[in-house]
Design a protein that fits this description.
Helices cover 79% and strands 0% of the residues. The chain is mainly alpha-helical. It has a domain at 8-61 and 156-183. Helix 2 (23-78) packs across helix 6 and helix 5 (102-111) packs across helix 6 (113-135). This is STI1/HOP DP domain-containing protein.
């Protein structure tokens, strides 16, 4: 969306002195100019906030994923039987088969106690780690943009303006069709 060109806004005094325009039309023109500038400003903030949140989430998920993988690998490597079972090419074939045909794989587990025990061990390790990480998620780090938005939203005038159905409609329109902001 382009920044509204304030040079294009007519001098308010000359507009008001123009006898062809009523005070109501003048007020509507002024309100329209202010609103278009505010909507532009807020749509940029919302767009930026969305991108910041997505990047922060990706970084956090990546760190959690790497840490989770490291913990699982460490625990599996401590269990010699499980390490040996997982390094067997037949086990890898079975795990791939399990992805595509879980019902048949379950039958195979029921008929092979060693395979069932090893599979149970690996799922227990993974479950324990997933549970641990879900409880210990690192606190989200607030970026500078997020801080600005949070502070702006503490202003009652801004929250009131954002609750206005017309402003909501404009923001929604701009989200769906940013080119409309250039008209």
């Amino acid at each position: 969306m382009d920044i509204p060109d304030l040079e294009e806004v007519p001098d308010l005094e000359s507009v008001h002195l123009n006898k062809d325009i009523s005070k109501t039309e003048f007020k509507n023109t002024l309100d329209s100019q202010i609103q278009s500038y505010q909507v532009w400003n807020w749509s940029i903030i919302y767009d930026g906030l969305g991108k910041v949140q997505l990047n922060t989430k990706r970084k956090t998920e990546s760190k959690l994923s790497q840490s989770l993988q490291n913990d699982i690998i460490e625990q599996v490597s401590k269990d010699e039987g499980l390490s040996e079972w997982l390094s067997n090419p037949e086990t890898m074939k079975f795990l791939k088969f399990m992805e595509s045909n879980p019902t048949e794989a379950k039958k195979q587990l029921q008929n092979d106690p060693k395979k069932a025990k090893m599979f149970s061990s690996i799922t227990n390790i993974m479950g324990t780690n997933f549970e641990k990480f879900s409880k210990n998620e690192p606190p989200e780090i607030e970026s500078e943009d997020e801080k600005k938005v949070r502070l702006a939203l503490q202003d009652p005038r801004i929250t009131t303006a954002l609750m206005d159905p017309k402003v909501k409609a404009i923001i929604e329109t701009l989200k769906c069709n940013p080119d409309k902001g250039n008209q």
